[in-house]
Structure formats: structure tokens, C-alpha cells
What we know:
GO molecular function: unfolded protein binding
CATH topology of the largest domain: Helix Hairpins
Pfam families: DnaJ, DnaJ_C
Strand content: 15-25%
CATH superfamily of the largest domain: DnaJ domain
Shape: elongated
Strand order of the largest sheet: 6-7-11-10
Order of helices and strands: HHHHHHHEHEEEEEEHEEEEH
Keywords: Chaperone, DNA replication
Radius of gyration: 33 Å
Number of domains: 3
Bound molecules: zinc ion
GO biological process, one term: DNA replication
Protein name: DnaJ domain-containing protein
Helix content: 25-40%
CATH class of the largest domain: Mainly Alpha
Distance between the termini: 47 Å
Largest sheet: 4 strands, mixed
Structural class: alpha+beta
Amino acid sequence: MAAPKDYYQVLEVDEKADQATIKKAYHRLARKYHPDVSGKAGEEKFKEINEAYEALSDPKKRAEYDRLRRSYAERQSRRRGPGFERVSYDWSPEDFEGFGSIFEDLFTGGGFGTRQSVEVPEEVVQLTLEQVMMGTTVNLTVNEVHPCVVCHGRDRSCPRCGGVGQVSEPRRFDVSIPPGVEDGAVLRVGEHARLKVEVAPHPRFRRQGDNLLGQLLVAVPVAAVGGDVSVQPLVGAPVMVTIPRHTNHGRVLRLKGMGLPHRGTSIKGDMLLEVALRFPEPFNEQDDRLYHELRHQHQEVGGEIHAPR
Ligand SMILES: [Zn+2]
């Protein structure tokens, strides 16, 4: 674990500073480094100041932060032997993982933190395979944090931000999901949020890249002499598929271009149908008679064993 960032140093206050002192220091520094005043150069510093103030202005968060900081320092001095008190402050919030929900709040709560990996909220949307085929639009509302345009953090009595200098506002997005989106894909939404796509299992098809895999039930007589069967694709009207004569169980029929679109291209995958033979049911007397005749013409009885696929 790296050292926690020294929020006290950032705000230029003593560790024992009371809340009023911290607040005063924050306002002074926020004015000094506000991007409107100091431009791009002050931006990072401004974020840092806000991050520090978020941690130290809330007594609960401050207590937790102090505790982490102390335990880190203790661990360091144990590791390096007595008398070693220097601590380097190159910490990142990931180090706090597992330290409880307070710091999750701190770094995911729309504050002005600087490290994307932890603060970015992630929404999850579950899509059907049909939606993957056609593409779709998802409505999403996320909270975005903006600098306060009323006071720019300069007015403690600002009715809009209360002097914090930033406001959190819900913002609605119509997120366009492109056809062919992958399961697990993460799309960026606005400046801060991300949308993770999950594809729900489908009752008839399994996805394999851009291809759609399915099992096609074919009646034994049709497989024997060949014939057309009507097949319902993932979307759209049924199509006729020709079953070649002498089609065996397990044969895979490839329907070119009837799979999913390859994201961002006009290329389409294929539909791969594995033939599963079945007898027409119920068997009637004539069926039995005809199959008896067939049986008498063939000596082959089967009986080989193969490992299952
Ligand atoms: Zn304001």
C-alpha cells in the first residue's frame, strides 16, 4: 500500500486544525487556484484542493482518513525500523479498497477526484440478442458534477452550491448502442459515466462472435430424401432452408450473412445450424411398417462409441 495523499498538506493546515480553519483554508486556496483565475495550470491543484476538502470537511470521513493515515505511518515505521518517520505521499484511492464504504462515497460520489478508475460510475444495461442485431437506444440518467456558474466557488452563501463551487445535476442521455455490440462492452456516457452492456441468453441462439449458433430439428424422412424447411431467423420473416438429401445428425448448415453485424462495419456473421434428427411423432402403423422394411435392408446396427463433443 502506498502512502495516503496528505490532505492536510494540500490545504496547508495543521493536522489538528479545527473545521473552521479547514474551511477557511479551502476557500482561500480554491479562490487562488480556481481555473477561472489560474487557468489550465491551476486545474489539477484545484481538483486536489476539492478532493482534500471533501475528505476533511466531513468529520466522519476525516476520522476515517486520519485512521488510515496513522495505520499507514505505523506500518511504515515498523517495516523500516524504529526512528524512521518519513512517509512519501504518492497514494491513490485504489489503496483504500477494502477500507469500507466511506471512501467509496468519497471517490465515487461525484466529487472532484482525479482518478478515473475509481470515481467513474458504471451503469449496466441488459440487451436481447435481437437488440444486438438491430442496435438500440438506451435512456440513461447520470449525475454530473459541474463547476458552479453562479459563484465559481467564491461565495459561501451561494444559493446554488453553498460555496463548494460545484453542483451535481442529473443529466439524461439517449445512448445509442451500435448493432453488433459485444457482451461486456463499456461505452462512455458524457464526461464521467460509463455504460456496460450485457447480452441476455437467448432461448434459440447462442452467440459466437458475429455468428449465431442454433440447433435445427429435422425430421428423419426429410433428412433422408432432402427438402425445404421453414426457419425463423433471429429477426424478420421466416426463410426457407434446403436440407440436402442424406443429411446426417450433427451436420452443420451454414447460412451466410444471417448472423450478427460486425460492429462498425457492414460485414455480417453467419448462422450455423446443427442438424438434430428426430422422428415424426407419433409413429403410425404405416411408419412402423416402412421402417421395418428399411431395417431389413440394412445390416448395419451401430454400436460404436465416440467421446461426446
Ligand atoms: Zn456557487
